[in-house]
Design a protein that fits this description.
Order of helices and strands: HHHHH
Mean pLDDT: 80
Helix content: 55-70%
Largest sheet: none
Number of domains: 2
Strand content: under 5%
Distance between the termini: 66 Å
Shape: elongated
Structural class: mainly alpha
Number of strands: 0
């Protein structure tokens, strides 16, 4: 099966990922659907379909990635007064409201 997928996809890693997905799908479906009439052909067909779906998603993402704002543009929207670390979380953790004022961290 991997050899036919590598030949179809032209990429060993992509073929391996598709085969793993097909085996996972087969493991999920077997208890309810049973074993297909031709398990090898079913696995190859499922792996090919998954690989094709993944390539389509990657192609669509590549076409639309330019529509997303650049990370620098997103960061420019934030004010510099925003605390950029976990100090605020630490303050609230050290001052739990259930403790009396004398027992809290100053």
């Amino acid at each position: 099966m991997p050899a036919s997928l590598v030949g179809f996809l032209g990429d060993f890693d992509r073929a391996e990922d598709a085969a793993q997905e097909a085996f996972a799908i087969a493991a999920r479906r077997r208890p309810t659907s049973g074993v297909p009439a031709n398990p090898g052909a079913w696995l190859v067909t499922t792996a090919r379909n998954r690989a094709i779906d993944r390539m389509r998603r990657e192609h669509t993402l590549a076409e639309k990635i330019h529509l997303l704002p650049a990370p620098e543009a997103v960061m420019d929207e934030f004010d510099d007064t925003v605390i950029k670390d976990e100090r605020l979380e630490l303050i609230f953790t050290c001052r739990p409201p259930v403790l009396p004022l004398g027992g809290r961290w100053p």
